[in-house]
Amino acid sequence: MKQKALVILMVGIMFFGLLTGCKGKDTQPVQQQDATDNNASSQTDSEQPNEVKTVDNNWGDMTWTEVLEEAKGQTVNWYMWGGSAVINTFVDEVIAERAAQYGIKLNRVGVTSISEAITKVMGEKTAGKDTNGEVDLIWINGANFMTMKQADVLFGPWSESIENAVFVNWEEPSIKYDMGFEVEGYESPWAAAQMQLIYDSQNYSEDALPHNYAQLLEWCKANPGRFTYVAAPDFMGTRFIKQALYELTGGYEQYMRDDITKEEFEEMSQPVWDYFNELAPYLWREGKTYPKSSSELNMMFSNNEVDYSMTLSAGGISSSIAAGTFTETSKVYTMDTSIGDVNYVAIPYNSSAKAAAMVIANIILSPATQAQGIVDISNGPVIDSTLLSEKYVEIIKAAYETLPVGTFVKEQDLIQDRVPEVSGYLNVFINELWNEKVSTR
Amino acid sequence: MDEKSRPWLMLLPALLIIVFLFLGGLVFCLVQSFNYQPIIGSYTVNLDAYASIFTDKAFLLSLVYSLYIAFGSTLLSIILAVVTAMALRKTFIGKGLAVFTFQFPIPIPHIVSGVAILMLFTQSGFISRIFNMMQLVDKPSDFPELVYSNNGVGILLALIWKFMPFIGISVLALLQTTGLAYEDQAASLGANAWQRFRYILLPIMKPAILSTSILTFAYAFGAYELPFLLGGVYPKTLAIIAFEKYNNVDLSYRPQSMAMSIVITIIVVSLILLYRKMAVKNEVSS
Predict the structure, then answer these.
(1) Would you call A24 and B27 a contact, using CB atoms and an 8 Å cutoff?
(2) How many whole angstroms separate alpha carbon A386 and alpha carbon A365?
């Protein structure tokens, strides 16, 4: 009898251990590393200084050829958001194949939220696992980058010294600052993102579209129930709200400091909450509920429940149209205030394949990969065409020419409407205040 | 092998997994819920996280909402399961097919049942379109809000679809092994249908109902994926807000997430203990 009680109790606890995400950091199953790690060589290195140069000890005075040499035979575990089938295929086929040419094995590890990977690295640091970490490369940006940099778990600086870094304009604010945090060589750009609205050109002509938040309110009053946005704290929702913040409170510049308190912000942002509460009755389901993710909104858009969806892919939606997510008549455009930023890859401090991880970052920046990215996964390029030779400019141009008209916003139009994503830490306040003041309406 | 140590030896692998993986995780959780987070330089131990969640209206509302989901789905499932099991224990033509259909949802993963409900019950879903075709509603958006809604109907539907057969099959097994003898005897002594149900069938079914409903309650109370898939934005279940806090880029929110997890665990464990006490009492009295 007692045993039975014990078993039931344990089953209950097991259920909750699983369901609440309450697993301890040290309980993560430890994956076996390949025999390719260079840790052993770096340890002997300190005893016999002249034998092998490794990134861990000598990165500062290594040549790129030496890095390529060290990278050979290493395996890179690249942790990234795994929610997009086309991006997964692109990484597994295009990037992994190019990595193989350098003798590098690329192992993509898909996660539902990148904070899982960050938690893993931090857990390793807490446990004192300073070498041989499981994560070698990580696709991050913004506040997550800040978190990792604060916790001092990133390797660097490295990104401005890799071979293809010459194609990147490191002084451009949207590259130099990641949501207001200075990159300082700790991450390397991967793709440009910018908020755009998706609509079906069969339903609306171009001049009927709302281009700012005041027009959007009018549009919703005229078409009640046909618009909604993704709820915070999904990043798409946060960004849509943040755009409204810039537009309704007089620009982003005032938020470019990092000492704004929540009370102060609550006061500064009040017009935004008033606006969204005024808008709510005209939204889908009268704003009593909202889609929780962009995939939910996409589904509602393709089922014709609403007339707009949203995307951050600076290369537009042609890959989603090809995949059948949207109809062939779907188009994108930017509102007059359109937050754009760049997302990056970074290397954790305890990676055992830093050389190979840098080579992957380098492959990402090659004009050929950037051009392929435009076509295959609608990535916006992060390399600056003024820094490219004519041959490479042509490659990028040719890539854009393969895309159907209207499925992407021309680069000069993106730049014209672009505003930066400043002060990532404000997003925490935005999410909290939206939840308090708007979602509970 | 020594007869006395043998059961312990056989239990060892399971116990190791439970103690180290899950109780270990729980201890970690507890420590962090007291604000102890060396990684961000927080070495103080205090109850701030608990104080802040218990003064947070959103958390209290989520607690009520999670209890509503857990009690609602479990109670409705019990009622439906008992009615179905009583019907299925009789012999009739097509019984095999009926039992198979009834058991069908058991091996289907929760997430699949969630997606199925989604396909059927959104306002642009299958059922809404049929209603629209039959002109029962004017336009798809007039179809009642069952999923993505704040009343949790979609979540309840998906949970009941999974729970009802799970409870029902255990109840049915007990009913069938008992047979009809007791009832026939009671009937011959003049007991009416209600009395036979109340004093014979219900006590027979009670152990099965108790042991299965503990599991369904525990599952529903901490459920994450179905509420995420089918629920609205406000309120959210405890597991969802705990995970949102856990994922917050600002690590200083993590103790609150851990405190919520601990609260969920305490509530469930104490309910399980209460259930056990009831079950033991039940056994003693019968």
Answers:
(1) yes
(2) 15
Residues 112-151 of A with CB under 8 A from B: 113, 115, 122, 125-126, 142-144, 146-147, 150-151
> What is the CATH classification number for the domain harbouring A427?
3.40.190.10
Task: With beta carbons less than 8 A apart as the criterion, state whether A417 and A336 touch.
Answer: yes
A245 vs B129, which has greater pLDDT? A245
* Cα of B166 to nearest chain A Cα, Å: 16
Question: Is residue A111 scored above 50 in pLDDT?
Answer: yes
List, for residues A81-102, the tens digit of each pLDDT value.
887 888 999 999 999 999 999 9
| A260 and A387 part of one domain | no
Q: What is the pLDDT of residue A339?
A: 92
Q: Is residue A99 in a domain?
A: yes
What stretch of H or E contains B268?
helix B254-285
Nearest to A22 among B25, B150, B273 (CB): B25
Residues in chain B with CB shorter than 8 Å from the CB of A300 are 122, 124
Torsion of CA A314, A320, A321, A325, to 10 degrees: -140
Nearest to A285 among B18, B145, B231 (CB): B145
Together in a domain, A281 and A426: yes
Token pair in block for residue A74: 């290493």
Distance between CA A50 and CA A52 in Å, rounded?
6
Phi-psi region at B89: left, alpha or beta (left = phi > 0; alpha = psi -120 to 50): alpha
Helix (H) or strand (E) holding B105, with range, is none
Residue type, A168: V
- The answer for residues whose C-beta is within 8 angstroms of residue A283's C-beta and 6 or more apart is A220, A225, A227, A228, A229, A290
Residue B282: what pLDDT? 66
Q: Do B222 and A115 touch (CB under 8 A)?
A: no
Q: Between A and B, how many residue pairs show a Cβ–Cβ distance under 8 A?
A: 159
B188 lies in some domain: yes
- Give per-residue pLDDT as tens, B174-224: 988 887 888 888 888 888 888 888 888 898 898 899 889 988 999 999 999
* Nearest alpha-carbon partner for B47 in B241, B263, B270: B263
- Dihedral of alpha carbons B146, B149, B152, B154, sign: positive
pLDDT of A23 strictly over 70: no
* B285: Cβ contacts below 8 Å, ≥ 6 apart: none
- Is the interface score ipTM higher than 0.85? no
Put simply, the answer to whether B26 touches A13 (Cβ < 8 Å) is yes
Domain tally, chain A: 2
Express each pLDDT in B228-241 by its tens digit. Answer: 989 888 889 999 99
pLDDT at A26: 38
Domain-embedded: residue A25: no
| Segment A283-299 mean pLDDT | 90
Q: Looking at the structure, do residues A287 and A336 belong to the same domain, yes or no?
A: yes
Distance from CA of B208 to the nearest CA of A (A): 13
Does position B140 have pLDDT exceeding 80, yes or no? no
Question: Dihedral sign, CA of B223, B226, B230, B233?
Answer: positive
- Residues A290, A168: contact at Cβ < 8 Å? no
In a mutational test of the A interface, the residue from B249, B274, B281 whose CB has the highest number of chain A CBs within 10 Å is B249
**How near does any CA of chain B get to the CA of A24, in Å?**
4
